[in-house]
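Kindly inspect what follows.
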Amino acid sequence: MVFRLFTRPAPVVSEASLPDAAAIASLHQASFRHGWSKDEVERLLADRTVLAHRAVHNGMTVGFVLSRFAADEAEILSLAVAPSQRGKGIAGVLLDLHMRRLAGLKVRALFC
């Protein structure tokens, strides 16, 4: 039997919604020179043409990706991972789920 004493649980990746706006805005502001406000993020999350996913680790939002889609195309609006969590593959996990969900919405082209 093997006991892994020092492994950390992986972040949980799921669809983001309005209650996540403050955490996403805070992470965006920490990641970009002109970070989005909570109101801006709320407007995006309320938009039916915007798809958003988040990564949560120990109760904290540590990453997110948002894209806008129309017909069979989508554009990534923003992607960020908390500085303390970078280099751990979180962006890849977020993008994998996000792109699979876009494919399920019949998106054939994704722009960055």
Q: What stands out?
A: The CA atoms of residues 32 and 110 lie 22 Å apart. The mean pLDDT is 93. Residues 12-111 form a domain with the Aminopeptidase fold (CATH 3.40.630.30). The longest helix spans residues 90-104.
